[in-house]
Write a structure and sequence with these properties.
With 156 residues, this protein is mainly α. The chain contains six helices and two strands; from the N terminus they run ααααββαα. The protein folds into two domains: 75 residues, Winged helix-like DNA-binding domain superfamily/Winged helix DNA-binding domain (Arc Repressor Mutant, subunit A); 54 residues, no CATH class.
Amino acid sequence: MTTPPPVDLANCSIAATLSLIGEKWTILILRDVFSGVRRFDDFLQRLQCSPAVLSTRLKTLTEAGLLRKVSYKEPGERERFAYHPTRAAVDLLPVLIGLMQWGDAHLAADGNGPAEVRSKISGLKVRAALIDEADAPVSPADMQMMATPTAPESST
């Protein structure tokens, strides 16, 4: 068996993703969005970060297409915005659940965190897993990183 050639990681997707979401407050905002938090004041109360940090992170997530702003107005109040996850944010959910799983297993004294994610249908715990395109489980030992196939060169 031959070893595949090394992969050029100059445009690494992991590095690009971390440059967008690899900051504590950003991940915690996404966690809270998936817990149903939508409003600025509610984020502030849960996160206990500064309003400037929260404002900056929400703007970044909105501009990157992970959150969308939805206008609302309470009677007698000024217009405000709620933040809703987009499809791109939902696609990050396995990453967040994976971080939670890892933290529960390796950082919590009893192996359990303060919360768990369960299916509303079955009641079973939800977990992140390594699966292939056919939804079959894949062991880390059975994986390899390979260069993305490129389109064939045209002959002119």
